[in-house]
């Protein structure tokens, strides 16, 4: 028999202003559940999580928490008042029976000592301290709102492993696809004020969501056709049968009301980037570049060429100097030694992710227009600010909204809107994915795929790096940076290890840099001259396996395209969905293995 839910929300309704934010949202959490809560920016995810935590009282609905159940909520902006150190802040959240050693263990695991003054913490350090406070008591329920924001890759991967080993039931809100796929077993979708539940993890969500939208569109067409038929009857038949058909006339009015009140899917962002004339073939060339601050080397002996159309991802732990490296490569900072040459006709377009770049007193329209105008220059053409705002999912009413009252996701969209309106052929994006909803991330990815210029991307989002970049430049410590072909997963496969915390040296078996920047064999092991027999056989047979998996995937997708399948046979629909998820995972693994072997073969033969 299934265990009773620890937490239940039923029919939660809450209105801010005129439009209901929540209009009948449900959430149920049993012991051991791993649920991701997804939805567009502004859909009410954070608010629903606060209702679950007991921090917000809904207008309607029921919240039930099993007696004795402990709940911890990760706030976006923790309150450190009254605490002299981060350790006292974490310990204040623990109960009499909790193990106090966990406070210091978690702080140290997250890169803090426990002696930091909370008033002097950076955004990333504040998030780490708040995470330690939420995790330390090992509660029955963990409610985590964007836990990976401001964390670097080592911290994200540590948190992922820590949560996998946790006994707590989890509800996660995150824009990090890889994080959600690794941890979630069920998905709650908050859309237009109500919730839908899928008893599968995030990897199955997007296909399911698209099916829901397609079914809604079909139902919308049916409603429109029915209204048209009833209106035709009203024009030509109501006079002769007035008394007998009053009920039918009332039904038509009801259909019209349904059509008026129907809330379709929230509009999608339309992202375009302004470009100037094309740059030359060479965009940036760095030769033996070095930069230090005091005794600490940031960049040492770096030689790198960035050509037109390249997509370079820069990764590393916090504090390794990624922003400094970007400033060196774009000519905004002079090196201590070496030379950086920026090519002809290169025009920089920079997205600065520091929230301080936005004046909280200015309005959305003023940020986009510069003030004193109602037009935005996009790609050399003038556009009305309201139309341009709509491209980025802002309503006309928000034109005079002060920046200070926008949500984190809205501020990030505003930064994107401002940066992408500026003309350039070298686009530099510093952590563009923070606080963006998944649909906007998809559109940003598509826009970057169509962008004819050159891209430099700094990000901790592993999935986004895999989808967007073709080269990854990773910090190896002590100012050394090494370039690897492919995305983040390709870098891990070649290097043998992911991004490590600052000051940690890569394991002995990890790839090292040669004079040309290519990996060489680990010390103490003879260099391979060709692939082994098993590797050759695998490389030969993998294309056939990939083709078979692609064929199976096409058949499964065709089966799921049947709009009546779910209604006719829900069990078969779920079985096919699970098989499709497994097939896609096997296909991705086979493609990655083929790429790894093919690159190994080319390297050995070259």
Automatic annotation (TrEMBL):
Highest taxon above the source species: Bacteria
PROSITE patterns assigned: ABC_TRANSPORTER_1, ABC_TRANSPORTER_2
Residue ranges of every copy of the ABC transporter domain listed in the record: 7-217, 284-501
InterPro entries assigned to the protein according to its UniProt record, in alphabetical order: AAA+_ATPase, ABC_tran_C, ABC_transporter-like_ATP-bd, ABC_transporter-like_CS, ABCF_ATPase, P-loop_NTPase, Val-tRNA_synth_C_sf
Low complexity biased stretches: 516-525
GO MF term list: ATP binding; ATP hydrolysis activity; DNA binding; translation elongation factor activity
Keyword terms: ATP-binding, Elongation factor, Nucleotide-binding, Protein biosynthesis
A Pfam family the protein falls into: ABC_tran_CTD
Keyword Nucleotide-binding attributed: yes
Signal peptide extent: none
Name assigned to this protein: Elongation factor 3
High-level lineage: Bacteria, Pseudomonadati, Pseudomonadota, Alphaproteobacteria, Hyphomicrobiales
